Amino acid sequence: MENETQSFLSKNRANPGFITHGGIELKSFGLCLNWVCVDQSSLWKIGLSWSVFFVLAVVVPIVSHLVLLCSDCDKQHQRPYDALVQLSLSSFAAISFFSLSSWARKYGIRKFLFLDKLCDVSDKVRHGYAQELQKSMKLLCVFVLPCFAAETAYRIWWYATGASQIPYFGNKYVSDIIACTLQLCSWLYRTSIFILACIFYQLTCHLQILRLEDFAQVFQKETEVGSILADHLRVRRNLRIISHRFRLFILWSLVLVTASQFIALLITTRASTTVNIYEVGELALCSISLVTGLFICLRSATKITHRAQAITSLAAKWHVCATINSFEDADGETPTAEIVSSQMFPADVDWESEDEEEGEDDLDNTKLVPIFAHTISFQKRQALVTYLEHNRAGITVFGFMVDRTGIHAIFAIELALLLWLLNKTIANLT
Q1: CB 101 within 8 Å of CB 38
Q2: What is the Cα–Cα distance from 348 to 341, expressed in whole angstroms?
Q3: What pLDDT, on the 0 to 100 scale, is given for residue 406?
Q4: CB neighbours of 403 closer than 8 A, spacing ≥ 6?
Q5: Distance between CA atoms of 273 and 74, rounded to whole angstroms?
Q6: pLDDT for 181
Q7: What is the predicted pLDDT for the residue at 428?
Q8: C-alpha separations of 353 from 208, 216, 359 in Å
């Protein structure tokens, strides 16, 4: 992985600004992958990777649950939801570990993040992606560290106040320190590896968003339909690659998050259950971490799908603006001709104004497209718009488009299950 980082830096020496930001953050990603032990570039690293995963994601949670369940402790130190917490975190750690290991082994970090394709894009896209790389590590810390701090405080409180009730081996203090450290390391490892996989997904989607925004600029200048079509085909191919690589990860994350949250709701709304912060605090932290990771993935997928489909709207608007400003010849066709259109559609339209109305973005907005001195013939524009209408790009999961409509459908299903479950549980309390 260090060789990949050096290769990335050497290929971008012509752009010092990109080296400063992108190169440093790529090293950070390499260090982060090494920390969670998914670097499998050599035989001994493969053994270390699997050993760390087996110890922190399997052995420590099982031993912690069986030995430190503390069913005979007082109410504040009992852990009735520990089995669900450990099973949920370990399941997501397993999905993330297998996914990251497979991606690192097949593609490497540069190819997986499409960094090897940055030589074909504009400087604006490169610098935008470098900034996103720089923010990604901060995003990982923002999501993980607050929950880890809360988990650490809870563990320290649990061992400090329940020392006389908690089982131990040998010296009580040494045993508690070792057990607490292993539990915290296990929690941090399992949570970090899941959030890291989600951030990888967000990064790959963001690069394609930047490319889509750069691609949209072709409608503001004289461009041949053939070049527009070729660029769109490249974008669609990249989106298919992303969809194929992440489809199992997204599907399993959605299914397991739904299952874990409904099981948690079921066991906390039983008639015999008394809920307090000491018992459900750890369960709440687990739920926050898992739902946050899923939110990152679904938001990234819907955002890129919305941008990709907005290209069709932009092309249709471009076609309309060009058509109403053109003139017909004797045969009734709209040939390529010199057109003066500054009166109706000024060429200095501000596409990135800070005064945009709420809900608009750079691609799907209500601004008119500037028409230049030479425009493409009507037939070619119509053919391009027809093609885009029937070949909409976006993120898919086994053929199902992950867009806002899909998110609404998922929300409706989740809400129906929630109401059904509450009807079964709360109705029994009355």
Answers
A1: yes
A2: 12
A3: 84
A4: 302, 305, 306, 309, 394
A5: 15
A6: 93
A7: 56
A8: 22, 16, 14
Centroid of chain to Cα 419: 28
Residue 22: name the closest of 106, 99, 110 by CA. 110
What is the residue type of 155?
R
Cβ–Cβ under 8 Å, residues 129 and 210: yes
Instruction: Look at residue 5 in the predicted model and tell me its pLDDT.
Output: 40
Instruction: List, for the chain, all residue ranges whose pLDDT scores fall below the cut of 50.
Output: 1-24, 327-360, 366, 372-374
Cα angle value 148/153/155 (rounded, 5°): 90
Q: Is 374 helix (H, G, I), strand (E, B) or coil?
A: strand
Spatial CB neighbours of 26, under 8 Å, sequence gap ≥ 6: 5, 8, 9, 109, 110, 115, 133
The overall longest dimension of the chain from CA atoms, in Å, is: 100
| Residue pair 382/333 in contact by the 8 Å Cβ criterion | no
- Locate 224 and state its tokens: 């041949």
Please give the pLDDT value at position 370.
Answer: 54
Contacts of residue 82, Cβ cutoff 8 Å, sequence gap at least 6: 64, 65, 69, 282
Q: Calculate ∠ Cα 155-160-162, nearest 5°.
A: 95
Tell me if the pTM is above 0.85: no
**Nearest C-alpha neighbor of 271 from the set 426, 417, 424:** 426
